[in-house]
């Protein structure tokens, strides 16, 4: 098979259908000169300059940037475009960052609601339209089961469509691979329905009765709110995630933080980079135009709050006595962000309306340290406890003791192997629509330089380029 090169963008985007895009723009006509996506039967035995594993926002951004440089490549996606958003998000899911922060390379949001928050179906369509706009060399429904390096430096990828090779590989599968559920879940009785947050869809999909939600990151808080608004009795085990106000002094807090440069601040500017990468995101919601998530207000309205879940024995579950400390910490972080915004406004003389600070509307008093699920009518437990990484298919020693890929801005110590789409890969925005494109462009430059270096070394030494393509740059 000849090398595949993505068409350089410039023409109108090709739509998946004749319907308007969710951003309000009208789709254009398909581009006949775009590369023809390979059929699965054409993959086996093929060699590509670059293979990108993953066809989500990170993989598509990588493809766009490689195509702009005329670098032949193939994108492998285990499902369909937008699978993670389509299959692992609940029905009312929406972005927590405003639409204007959707800045995929060559395809920034340009619709009628820049300050709104795209819902699940709109996010999927945004990604589908992005792919249609430049027609990447993409093979869907192809899972990579093994990645190793052959003698001479060439990468070999075993896939469900056969074995292929590449000079360079970008792993763009993100960090959320395997649902993480604590072992104590095994101690709950079979009569209790248990779901991970990635399996939850809507309140109607659960048995009648109360629901215990474990965890208060973005997913836990939003799912608890979804159930609460539907009139379900919710018991919420509060985690350690901080919160942020949706709006402050006339603007979305995201807009203030963006203006202040927080999303562009590099990880190497922190003294504790390792700890920064492990931080959980602040909870807030874009639902119904965006608002705060105030767990205290939920409690005042009847939601039952507890500290961290510590154990389970049959129908009885136990909690730590740290609810007040966790609520106070979340509030302190939100108020600290407001302090920084105030300082930014004052330093630049910005005309912004004054706003009174948050006052807690509820305080925990004699919170139970245990709950009998049967006595409390709890029929379901939703584990909003995050995900684990699963890189067992990568047989190249580039991971630390925790299984995290060791890299600098996505480039690993194994020349030619890269990662893209990781949280805090380089900045706060790295794992989001906001900055994944900047990381992709950086890696595309690195890949291009590595390729040119290999070509020069191959010419000088007489060795085939594929044997020198893995040499480091500089």
Please specify the SSE layout and strand pairing.
Elements: E1 47-53, H1 57-68, E2 73-76, H2 83-87, E3 103-104, E4 107-108, H3 120-134, E5 138-139, E6 144-149, E7 155-159, E8 162-171, E9 178-179, E10 193-196, E11 210-214, H4 218-229, E12 234-237, E13 247-248, E14 251-252, H5 253-259, H6 273-277, H7 295-300, E15 304-306, E16 309-313, E17 316-319, H8 323-348, E18 370-372, E19 378-383, E20 387-388, E21 417-419, H9 436-461, H10 465-468
Helix pairs in contact: 1-9
Tell me about the largest β-sheet: 7 strands, mixed
Distance between the termini: 32 Å
Q: Return the structural class.
A: alpha/beta
Number of strands: 21
Number of helices: 10
The share of residues in helices is 10-25%
Beta-strand residue fraction: 15-25%
Mean residue pLDDT: 88
- What gyration radius follows from the Cα positions, in whole Å? 24 Å
Question: What low-confidence regions span 5 or more consecutive residues with pLDDT below 50?
Answer: 1-35, 458-474
The shape is globular
Characterization of this structure:
The protein is α/β, with parallel strands linked by helices. Helices cover 25% and strands 18% of the residues. Helix 1 crosses helix 9 (436-461). Residues 1-35 and 458-474 have low confidence and may be disordered.
What attributes does this structure have?
474 residues; five-stranded parallel beta sheet; seven-stranded mixed beta sheet; 21 strands; single chain; disordered C terminus; disordered N terminus; alpha/beta; 18% strand
Give a quick rundown of the structure.
With 474 residues, the protein is α/β, with parallel strands linked by helices. The chain is built from 10 helices and 21 strands. Helix 1 (57-68) packs across helix 9.
